[in-house]
Amino acid sequence: MKRAKLFVLLVSIAIFLTNCSKPQPTQMPITQTDGDVTAVLTLLPDTPTVMNPTILSLTIKDADSQPITGASVAFDLTMPGMAMPPNNAQATDDGSGSYDAEVTFTMAGDWQIQADVTYPGGSAEFTFDLTIE
Ligand SMILES: [Cu+2]
């Protein structure tokens, strides 16, 4: 009986410590839909930090869940709370419906990642909200 109680206590402490030491995870990937196009944004690292390079990767699929290849994807990073210097990146097509670009978040706070997608047959626009600690 005593041992069981001690065990429960130790497990509780372990769970508590595990949760506390975890870095604040950004909820990634983020999925959004605009018309026929569904986009999934992933970040590397998934919790970006200020003034360090972050790889944005946008995977786009059509209404039939087929990857959209041959598109042009441009990222525009802004902060909704203030005017910031232009922060843009043209993504590189990996040939399988995924488009990557390296960006830098230049200060902590709330950011908006806009992705402009132009593909054979149409265009789509996505806006992702992200807080950089
Ligand atoms: Cu700012």
Range of helix content: 10-25%
Overall 3D geometry?
globular
Number of helices: 1
What is the CATH superfamily?
Answer: Immunoglobulins
Span between termini: 45 Å
**How would a crystallographer describe the biggest sheet?**
5 strands, antiparallel
Bound molecules: copper (II) ion
The gyration radius over C-alpha positions equals 20 Å
Number of domains: 1
* Binned strand content: over 45%
| DSSP strand tally | 9
Helix-strand topology string: HEEEEEEEEE
The assigned structural class equals: alpha+beta
Q: What is the topology, as strand order, of the major beta sheet? A: 1-2-3-7-6
- Overall average pLDDT: 87
Contiguous runs where pLDDT drops below 50 for at least 5 residues: 19-25
What's the CATH C level? Mainly Beta
CATH architecture: Sandwich
How would you portray this structure in words?
This protein has 133 residues and is α+β, with helices and mostly antiparallel strands. The protein has a single domain (25-132), classed as Immunoglobulin-like (Sandwich). Helix content is 15%, strand content 47%. The chain is built from 1 helix and 9 strands; from the N terminus they run αβββββββββ. The strands form 2 sheets. The protein has a 5-stranded antiparallel beta sheet with strand order 1-2-3-7-6, with no helix packed on it. The chain has a 4-stranded antiparallel beta sheet with strand order 5-4-8-9, with no helix packed on it. β8 (109-119) and β9 (122-132) form a beta hairpin. The chain is globular. The chain starts with a helix and ends with a strand. The site of copper (II) ion has 5 residues, from loops.
